[in-house]
Design brief:
Blueprint: H1 17-40, H2 57-151, H3 178-189, E1 194-195, E2 204-205, H4 207-217, H5 226-230, E3 234-236, E4 246-251, E5 254-263, E6 266-272, E7 276-281, E8 289-292
Parallel strand pairs: 1-2
Antiparallel strand pairs: 3-8, 4-5, 4-8, 5-6, 6-7
C-alpha cells in the first residue's frame, strides 16, 4: 500500500470569483495598513489593526431600489409637465373657438338686422308707391268725371256701344275674334297671378308686362313701358270699346297704368301687390282713356 493512500487531500474547494475578489481586497487593505504602520514606527511597535466594513448585498439592493425610485419620480414629473402643457393647449383652443363663435354670431345678427331693415324699407317704399298710384287714379277719375259731365251737358247717362257699360249697368258684348280673341284669352288665363314690379311672367306681372305678353301671344310687339304702350295705335272713347283694346290711366303720353279690355264692361290687369292680376268692372276703377292697336 502506498504511503499516501491514507493522507487526506490538501486541495481546498474552489471559491467563486466574487468572493475571491472580495477577500483579495480585504487582505490587500489589511497588509497595506500593516506596512504603513511598520514604516512609521519602531520595530517593537504594536501592530495596528484596522477593520474595514464592506458593503453587503442588502445595501447594494437598497441603492438599486433608490435609483429606480428616482428615475420613476423623474419620469412622473415629465409626464405631469406634458399633461399640463396639453391641457393648456386645449384650454387655449377652446377659448379661441368660443371667441370665433361669438364673433360669427354677432356678424350673423348684424346681417339679419340689416336684411330686416332693408325689407322694411322696401315695404314702406312699395306702400308709398301704391298710395301715390291710388291718389293719381282718384284725381284722374275726378277730372274725367268733370270733363264728361261738361261735355254731356249734365246728362246722367246714355246708351253704350259694343261692350261698354250703360247707365243702368247693362252691357252689350261683342264676342272677340282673331287676334283680339287671343289677347283676351291670354289675359284671362293670368288671373290670379301675383303682381311684381318689373314682372314679365310667367307667374308674376306688372301692368305693362301683362299687356306686352298678351299682345305678343297674338304676334304683335309692343313697347315695355306703360306710357309708351298708351302712345301707340289710335285713341278711342270709352263708349266705343272693343275686346283687346288697351285701357290707360293718366294722360295718353304719360300713363302710369294700363290694362286690357276683355268685353262685357270689364278689363283684366295686373293692379297691385295686394290684388295681383284681376278682372274688374270699368266702374271699379274708371280708366282715363283707351287705344286700339288691332
Amino acid at each position: 500500500m502506498s504511503h499516501t493512500a491514507h493522507i487526506p487531500s490538501h486541495r481546498k474547494p474552489r471559491r467563486s470569483a466574487s468572493k475571491l475578489a472580495l477577500r483579495a481586497g480585504v487582505t490587500g487593505g489589511f497588509l497595506g495598513t500593516i506596512a504603513v504602520a511598520g514604516a512609521a514606527g519602531p520595530a517593537h511597535a504594536e501592530p495596528v489593526t484596522e477593520t474595514i466594513e464592506m458593503p453587503t448585498l442588502g445595501s447594494l439592493s437598497a441603492g438599486a431600489d433608490l435609483a429606480s425610485a428616482v428615475a420613476a419620480s423623474a419620469e412622473a414629473s415629465q409626464q405631469e409637465a406634458l399633461d399640463q402643457s396639453l391641457q393648456s393647449q386645449e384650454d387655449a383652443a377652446l377659448q379661441k373657438a368660443a371667441k370665433e363663435a361669438k364673433q360669427a354670431k354677432a356678424e350673423a345678427d348684424r346681417k339679419a338686422a340689416a336684411e330686416r331693415a332693408e325689407e322694411a324699407r322696401l315695404k314702406a317704399e312699395q306702400e308709398r308707391k301704391e298710395a301715390a298710384e291710388r291718389a293719381s287714379r282718384d284725381a284722374a277719375r275726378t277730372q274725367l268725371a268733370t270733363t264728361s259731365s261738361s261735355s254731356n251737358g249734365g246728362s246722367t247717362g246714355s246708351s253704350s256701344d259694343s261692350g261698354a257699360t250703360t247707365s243702368k249697368g247693362s252691357t252689350q258684348t261683342q264676342a272677340p275674334s282673331g287676334a283680339a280673341a287671343t289677347i283676351v284669352a291670354f289675359a284671362k288665363a293670368q288671373i290670379g297671378d301675383a303682381y311684381v314690379s318689373g314682372g314679365t311672367g310667367p307667374n308674376s306681372w306688372d301692368c305693362s308686362g301683362l299687356v306686352q305678353a298678351a299682345y305678343r301671344a297674338a304676334g304683335i310687339d309692343l313697347p315695355r313701358i306703360s306710357y309708351q304702350q298708351s302712345s301707340m295705335g289710335t285713341s278711342v272713347s270709352l263708349g266705343n270699346l272693343q275686346p283687346g283694346d288697351i285701357l290707360y290711366w293718366g294722360s295718353r303720353s304719360g300713363s302710369y297704368h294700363v290694362a286690357i279690355y276683355v268685353g262685357g264692361g270689364k278689363f283684366v290687369g295686373a293692379q297691385n301687390p295686394s290684388t295681383g292680376v284681376v278682372e274688374r268692372s270699368l266702374d271699379w276703377d274708371t280708366p282715363s282713356g283707351a287705344i286700339r292697336i288691332l
